Amino acid sequence: FHLGVTPAVLRSRYNLTAADVGSAANNSQAVAQFLEQFYHPADLAEFMTMFGGGFKHLSVVDKVVGKQGGGKAGIEASLDVEYIMSSGANISTWVFTNPGRHESQEPFLQWMLLLSNISSIPWVHTISYGDDEDSLSAAYMDRINAEFMKAGVRGISMLFASGDSGAGCRHMDRGVNVFRPSFPASSPYVTTVGGTSFKNPYKITYEVTDYISGGGFSNVFAMPDYQVSAVNSYLKGVQSLPPVSYYNASGRAYPDIAALSDNYWVVSNRVPIPWVSGTSASTPVFGGILSLINDQRFLKGLPSLGFLNPRLYKLQGRALFDVTEGCHLSCLDEKVQGKGFCASPSWDPVTGWGTPNYPALLKALLE
Amino acid sequence: HAAYLEADQDTTVPEDWVHAGRVSPVEEVELTFALKQQNVERLRELLQQVSDPDSDQYGKYLTLEEVTSLVRPSDLTQKAILLWLNSHGVTNCHTVLTQDFLQCLMPVQVAEMLLPGSEFHRYTRGDRSLIRSASPYAVHNDVSQHLDFVGGVHRFPPKSEVGKSWSGRRQTSPG
């Protein structure tokens, strides 16, 4: 029985023992913030005092890149830092904070520039940020993809939240609706994280889809080779699909993986807050787990995991808890009535391959 | 002799941003020029190789310096862009290690001459204020082929980062 998701609940569900904490010297992880969101060091310290019992952890961020604003902390920033440092426990953590120091700057772009300007940056980055794909130009997205490729060839893992609007909905002319993918979640060069809930919200049970979990198919980027087989199996095997006019079945499909995204406890402005939800919670949790795996790889003299997807899809779901129940939301219209895609055995566009079973995932990714 | 960078011309102002007037010609804007990179296809191939566990290149990552050697814009691109900026008196610029982005500070009146068609206005949302142009920009024909886009002209930040949906959204109860 529990009263919401805390580090102890996550570590129990994903089979992390007290010994599963970082120890490699050169390991590091990062979260990035782009809006007027700031974490407060005192919140992190209080969070770890309240919820960090039972595992070795750090209570201080190692490096803040960018200028933290004054004033109140943001829930988003508190959430990211508190949870990446709970699953990726005892691992050096950086915070990139880019509110935009000039009114004409684009904070997301500023962050991309920083990555191209620092020789030694953390191995895992988790980012809870996205925009409607249809609001961005192809030239811009292509170039951002090139920036993700630049990070990938350096061995850096980029994890993006899949979004909190399910398949999304775009209202076209003449009353026609289509699903609305989100970018960078839809980029073929990042790993996208969806969300789940406990079957029984007050017990550590198996997981079902969180109906807000973002997912679907890109209208801009073609399906990359690494996922063709998995996605086609889903499209052929699933019992029911939304009408084909709502999505581009040949596009990059996302998310790739998932983690719990519902009912978190966060400390913000020194106040413990319950019921915090969204894929911005699941993303740092999965990022921290990848950092733990990097840690073990480094101790064995292996390189970092880098861009995970080609390897992840070869695992075929091995080492992950498959999520097979529930659907996410979409357009509220007569045709789909708010229902988007549904989870199914193996990969699906709501929870990807599923959620991490740490010991099994560690074993698979150390091979 | 200006060419529109047509692929980067989404000029929609999101409904939640309120127009707060034209920006003074002497106010400064910082624009980000995304210079065309070289060897992007090779970069894609390398990413595939270093990320595929079945490849003998798996895990053989590049340093930032090696990435720079691969994607750095050609000398022609860099010269064309710098010449263009200098000809407008824009000299307060800095680049990144990979040399594929250039950020320059300039007065609004210079930015509008540099990017014909652009017109910088201030927009606000809550206590946040931004400078953007709601009209499409062009660049000189000689430089359009050397640029992917110019940042800081059109794109508004999304309404919120994904997440932040703590609630109340679902009234679940045990049993």
In short:
Chain A is of the alpha/beta class. Helix content of chain A is 28%, strand content 21%.
Q: Care to count the β-strands of chain B?
A: 9
**Class by helix and strand content of chain B?**
alpha+beta
- Portion in helices of chain A: 25-40%
Strand content of chain B: 25-35%
How far apart the termini of chain A lie comes to 36 Å
Plain-language structure description:
The complex is a heterodimer of chains A (367) and B (175). Chain A has 367 residues and is of the alpha/beta class. Chain A contains nine helices and 20 strands. Chain A has helices at 7-13, 41-51, 75-87, 107-115, 138-153, 228-237, 279-299, 309-315, 358-366; strands at residues 29-33, 63-65, 93-97, 124-127, 131-132, 157-161, 170-171, 177-178, 182-183, 191-198, 207-209, 216-222, 251-254, 257-260, 264-268, 271-276, 320-321, 327-329, 339-342, 355-356. In chain A, the strands form seven sheets. In chain A, strands 1, 2, 3, 4, 6, 10, 11 and 14 form an eight-stranded mixed beta sheet that branches. In chain A, α3 links the parallel β2 and β3 (93-97). Chain B is an alpha+beta fold. Helices cover 25% and strands 26% of the residues of chain B. Chain B has helices spanning 40-51, 64-71, 75-87, 108-114, 141-144; strands spanning 2-4, 18-22, 28-35, 93-95, 101-107, 120-125, 128-133, 138-140, 147-151. Chain B has a four-stranded antiparallel beta sheet. Chain B is globular, with a radius of gyration of 21 Å. Chains A and B meet through α3, α4, β5, α5 and β16 of A and β3, α1, α2, β7 and β9 of B.
